[in-house]
Amino acid sequence: MRTPLFSLLPFTPLILAGMIPMKDSTTIIHTTITIPVAQHTPIQHPSPAVTTHTVIVGGPSGLIFEPSQLHAAVGDTVHFVFLSRNHTLTQSTFDAPCVKKEGGVDSGFVPTDKETLEGAPGFTVTVETEEPTWWYCKQKQPRNHCTEGMVFALNPTTEKTFDRFLENAISSSPNSTSPSESFASHTTIPAATHTQTQTPAATSSAAQWDYGNNNSSTGMEPGTGLVKGWNRNANPEACNCACLCGASGFPAGDGVGAFGGWGGAMPAPW
């Protein structure tokens, strides 16, 4: 008796499985691994140190800048301290040391009676180039300070030395003139910027005075520009004038019974 065909169908896969070999199967597993990126911290480079150089102008040492030359890096500051009597810091050129450079820095006249650094007026220049710059004092009363050697060099070179600059100044004509001789010019130039640390009273260039002709006739005290002698309480035998003296300096009682004239002040001739 035959087995019906339909009764074998459920077993067909089993028969086929035994008759036909099955291929091995491979399962691919995808795995994502996240690796954190290291944080980058920029390296901080310290700013170059800024140096402040101090230069003394005039004072007990006479008509001189101390030191008369120096080398400073870009960004450094040069602080000029003014001592007695009445000087300037004025920019010039190597070939014309005693003539103000057009558009150059000029502190203007800085009158002071200070003999020490404490409380003395100052003027600060910030160095903005390594190129040399040249400076002088433009005071001409009672004599020309520049032709006396009152000059200063910032970053002089081996070709243009301070000694040659000084020689040029001394050999200059004492009557060399500069534009705007009497007043400060605060024009910023590429070579330097500047800050005046203490504003002095406004002043003009000193009046000319003939010491030789006035000392004997008026009793002028040598080297001061002041005349001793007052109208002491309207005493007609006393001096009837007070020349080159400040208006605030008159003693009590002076001028009683007098007439005419005007209290005032004139710059002393230094």
TrEMBL record:
CDD domains: Cupredoxin (cd00920)
Region feature (Disordered): 193-224
Residues of the signal peptide: 1-17
InterPro entries named in the record: Cupredoxin, Ser-rich/MCO-related
Record keywords, A-Z: Signal
Composition bias type Low complexity, residue spans: 193-207
Domain of life: Eukaryota
Name of the featured protein: Cupredoxin
The species this protein was found in: Ascodesmis nigricans
Lineage of source species: Eukaryota, Fungi, Dikarya, Ascomycota, Pezizomycotina
